[in-house]
Design goal:
InterPro entries: AraC-type_N, Homeodomain-like_sf, HTH_AraC. Helix 2 packs antiparallel against helix 4, helix 10 crosses helix 13 and helix 13 packs across helix 16. The chain is built from 16 helices and seven strands.
């Protein structure tokens, strides 16, 4: 289908709103800029688009003038990340990126300490907050660790293969979202918060330029939240099959098995071993596509229903309400308020 299908749990938006409340920001302004409302925040099952979440984070950054969202021991004024990025874009390789990135933040802000350590054939990029109690929802640690992986990956033009991510806090309630954020096992209650990867990739050269960086910064943080989700091999292949389909109504586990040169029974077994089910994957694709079409396009609900393989709009309406707790029309009306 050629569009980004990833959606984000409302849980993260609620944490951002909590941060805004602690910073005494105008909550009505935050919600309006993100195309959200209070009723949507109260729906624990709702998922929103990367655009909505990015708009919300950008609004908190601007109103608080703090890229650490009020969760650091010291404010990090808006624009600090861009200054750092304009320095590291001239690095020769990934090792230099992580060195310069660490040195920059260690010098200009006491809220955190960053370090790159190489032990044998593994690299550890670690982060320690000076006052972790201020990051009471663990949002800052999750966001920054995501950033320290995705921005350097963008700089070298390839995903840095992670062996593990570790966090110095307990497993959060939204644990399942971490499989969408990090392509590796996540461990909690560890001594240090860090990324772990093969040290060999530190020699990878940068492929981005000051010109491409300018475009990247204008879109930030949108691109950091729209990377494809990482899944086990057969789950990913089935998702690829579903996303390429021009007719989801006719896309079945039989068609997926045929494309993968497997029997239906074998594919079901492999998906089950990865903790997946075909229908659940198909519903996830339809849910994320529906969220995208309703919030980002002017297509009629009837056409969206047809494109996603529903026999009639009423069936789509029932499914969308089951997925999100919202009627499609109400969801679209709120999204349009931001435009």
């Amino acid at each position: 289908m050629g569009i980004e299908r990833y959606s984000i749990s409302i849980h993260f938006a609620r944490m951002l709103m909590n941060a805004g409340h602690r910073l005494q920001l105008d909550e009505a302004v935050l919600l309006k800029e993100a195309g959200l409302n209070q009723r949507m925040l109260e729906n624990a099952h709702l998922r929103i688009t990367p655009d909505q979440f990015s708009r919300l984070m950008r609004a908190v950054w601007r109103l608080a003038d703090d890229e650490f969202l009020g969760m650091g021991s010291q404010r990090c004024p808006q624009g600090v990340f861009a200054i750092m990025a304009k320095q590291v874009i001239h690095s020769h390789n990934l090792h230099s990126v992580y060195y310069k990135l660490s040195h920059f933040y260690n010098v200009i802000n006491d809220s955190l300490h960053l370090s790159l350590d190489i032990v044998g054939d593994e690299a550890f990029f670690s982060m320690a907050l000076k006052d972790p109690a201020k990051d009471q929802d663990y949002l800052l640690r999750g966001f920054l660790l995501l950033l320290w992986h995705r921005f350097p990956s963008w700089l070298i033009g390839q995903r840095i293969p992670l062996k593990q991510v570790a966090f110095d806090h307990p497993a959060p309630k939204h644990l399942t979202e971490y499989r969408l954020m990090f392509p590796c096992p996540a461990k909690f209650d560890q001594a240090v918060t860090c990324l772990v990867f093969d040290a060999a990739i530190l020699t990878a050269p940068l492929v981005q330029t000051p010109e491409t960086l300018g475009h990247h910064l204008k879109r930030a943080p949108f691109d950091w939240f729209t990377r494809p989700a990482y899944y086990p091999v057969y789950t990913r292949r089935v998702l690829d099959h579903l996303e390429r389909s021009e007719d989801l109504a006719e896309t079945t586990i039989q068609s997926a098995a045929l494309e993968l040169h497997l029997t239906e029974r074998t594919l079901r077994r492999k998906l089950a071993a990865e903790g997946s089910q075909f229908q659940r994957l198909k519903d996830g694709v339809r849910r994320d596509m529906a969220i995208h079409y309703l919030s980002q396009t002017s297509m009629s609900i009837s056409l969206i229903s047809q494109m996603l393989g529903f026999s009639e709009p009423s069936a789509f309406t029932r499914a969308f309400r089951q997925w999100t707790g919202e009627l499609p029309k109400n969801y679209r009306d709120v999204a349009r308020q931001k435009k």
